[in-house]
Design a protein that fits this description.
heterodimer, A: mainly alpha, 53% helix
């Protein structure tokens, strides 16, 4: 279309020259552009482009802060509280599982003993390990699963405190341990993989190749735990436990709401009435439960996305200020702060 | 005739007839030259429209416009002034002075932004040292903007201290102290809530623990120190052990002790 008729006729007669033509035209056009604008290739970005932030300067001097806050995710460093005797195979196994992360007590690595398997704990051995840490070791570095285990362990500990359990119930509750949680989480994963495999047979391609969804795993374990509790606890015990869980959730909502009010107070110059109303509407808002509110203390440049009904107490000017601020939603589930988990009392 | 026009026959020296469809060849030409034309246009457009990396836009404004940020800051100043008018009963003259001071703070900030823009102009984004240099210039502005422009070092604060009378200053100090107290209380609540994710507390234990933590006094801190999120843990570490022992059982104490030991060094940083 753009070529002189003579060249076109030649190419028509010798079609094998077409790729050659293409190969010649392309570099010529690039070379021409280089001649016309040599700097264009040095700056090929159009407009501002986000650049990964380099190392910040004038950061708060966190070097003096306590060590755990700076540590990476530690899931394999259980802390042995008390060890009387640990011998032989269990210790060797522990070293292998821990992959060099173990600490040693009296020349024997003991951290993973309880996790490696009850069978390996010899009779008479007394190993008391912080529950969360014990679970964390058992999950072999899976933070999501570690959280699930932590949740189950906390609820078990709560039940022991608020419900008067008999020996049989205690025994049954103890069976809801790391192994049980792992089993429930893995069962769902296997089912998912199997289903994905079947789909792939018929549909082909990569259908169903996604890894197990952590939210689904969490939901599976939570549902199974609730079902199991119904079997173990008497109705009045279950009611008592649920009352305490609700109290805990309500407190979490209240704490998060107060935190957000405090963050906004400085920026929006809230008065007493506004503070109270905002705290009330935030507490009632569904999104507050899973919010990682402390993030907004640390990162003052951001505020959470709050729906309009929650902000009824604000004036037009305050809403304008809020609109102009950067929004970011951070949820508790998104965080694994890298801190060694604290103990859960048995 | 149609057949002749749409196809060409040629005979190679080996006697093989090659039939080429003319339409196919036309399409081929068009594809080749459209590609070349597109490439040329791309290069030209880059030449004409190419801009340098705007570090201020990337790191400071972060998707917002300068006008919207300026408006936001002006609104903040207006809101702060309205609060002061109400709570410290400012006179019109005092309010005017403070309004001017706030405008001065906003203008000074954007003046510094312009200086930073000039300082970072032309820095090559492919060069890590240049990127670091740009960050060194821009990050203090980011900190200033996120911490708020009307802090203790601001013109607003200075004018306020020289404009307000003694009673008004006292009232303002009281307001600030109350605000800090509320902030610390919110931190205590969130800390207890976080602890509760790992350590179960009964309702009464929770309430008492919050009371004990609230009762611990820490020196006021600036947000820039990066210590704010540790307020709750520092207060927990300051609670006398005997008080906690009255509240918690042996296993809970073991867990709490672990936390208190971890955050004990923080207390020294607050009390310094």
């Amino acid at each position: 279309m753009f070529l002189p008729a003579m060249i076109r006729a030649r190419l028509l007669r010798f079609p094998c020259l077409l790729p050659v033509c293409f190969a010649i035209c392309l570099p010529i056009s690039l070379a021409a552009s280089l001649v016309i604008c040599p700097t264009a290739h040095a700056q090929v970005d159009v407009g501002p482009k986000p650049v990964q932030n380099p190392k910040p300067v004038e950061e708060p001097k966190v070097a003096e802060e306590p060590k755990p806050a700076q540590e990476p995710q530690v899931v394999a460093a259980a802390q042995v509280v008390e060890v009387r005797v640990v011998e032989g195979q269990a210790a060797a196994q522990a070293v292998e599982i821990q992959d060099g992360e173990v600490q040693e007590a009296a020349g024997v690595a003991v951290q993973a003993v309880q996790i490696v398997g009850e069978a390996m704990i010899e009779e008479g051995v007394d190993v008391a390990v912080g529950a969360v840490q014990m679970f964390a070791v058992g999950m072999e570095g899976d933070p999501q699963a570690s959280k699930l285990l932590s949740k189950v362990a906390v609820d078990n500990a709560l039940i022991r405190r608020v419900c008067k359990l008999d020996d049989e119930q205690l025994k049954q509750l103890e069976s809801l341990d790391a192994k049980w949680v792992k089993g429930k989480a893995a069962a769902g994963k296997q089912a998912g993989n199997l289903a994905a495999g079947v789909i792939r047979v018929f549909a082909g391609g990569n259908v169903g190749m996604q890894p197990d969804n952590p939210v689904e795993a969490s939901s599976r374990v939570t549902t199974a735990y609730k079902t199991k509790l119904k079997e173990i606890l008497k109705p009045e015990q279950l009611a008592e436990y649920e009352k305490h869980v609700k109290e805990r959730e309500a407190f979490r909502r209240q704490a998060n709401a107060q935190c957000i009010v405090s963050v906004l107070e400085d920026r929006l110059s809230l008065n007493d009435t506004q503070r109270d109303e905002l705290a009330k509407s935030l507490t009632e808002w569904s999104g507050i439960q899973k919010m990682q509110a402390t993030f907004y203390f640390q990162n003052q440049a951001y505020i959470p996305n709050l729906p309009a009904p929650v902000l009824k107490a604000l004036t037009a000017t305050q809403r304008k200020i809020l609109d102009g601020m950067q929004k970011a939603d951070f949820q508790f589930e998104m965080f694994n702060d890298g801190q060694e988990a604290i103990f859960i009392a048995q | 005739m149609v057949k002749k026009r749409s196809s060409l026959h040629s005979k190679s020296k080996h006697g093989v007839h090659i039939i080429v469809n003319k339409v196919v060849v036309d399409n081929y030409f068009q594809a080749v030259f459209r590609t070349c034309a597109l490439l040329c246009m791309l290069v030209f457009s880059n030449c004409v429209f190419a801009q340098e990396q705007d570090w201020i836009q990337s790191w400071l404004y972060n998707g917002r416009t300068e006008a919207s940020i300026r408006l936001g800051l002006q609104n903040q100043a207006e809101q702060k002034l309205a609060q002061l008018r109400e709570q410290c009963r400012l006179t019109d003259e005092q309010a005017t002075k403070l309004k001017l001071a706030a405008a001065g703070d906003v203008n000074r900030f954007f003046h510094d932004v312009e200086k930073a823009r000039k300082a970072t102009k032309g820095l090559d984004q492919q060069n890590q040292n240049a990127v670091q240099e740009a960050w060194n210039v821009v990050s203090p502005l980011t900190t200033r903007l996120s911490a708020g422009l009307f802090d203790e070092k601001s013109l607003f604060a200075k004018v306020m201290s020289s404009t307000l009378d003694a009673a008004q200053v006292e009232e303002y100090k009281r307001l600030l102290a109350e605000q800090l107290e509320r902030r610390y209380h919110a931190m205590v609540l969130t800390t207890v809530s976080t602890i509760e994710e790992s350590l179960p507390l009964i309702g009464e234990q929770r309430t008492k623990l919050i009371e004990l933590m609230d009762a611990q006094k820490l020196k006021a801190i600036q947000p820039q120190q990066g210590l704010e999120t540790y307020v709750g843990y520092a207060k927990l570490a300051k609670v006398p052990e005997a008080e906690l022992e009255k509240l918690f059982d042996k296993d809970q104490m073991k867990a709490l002790k672990s936390l208190r030991d971890r955050y004990a060094p923080i207390v020294q940083m607050f009390d310094r």
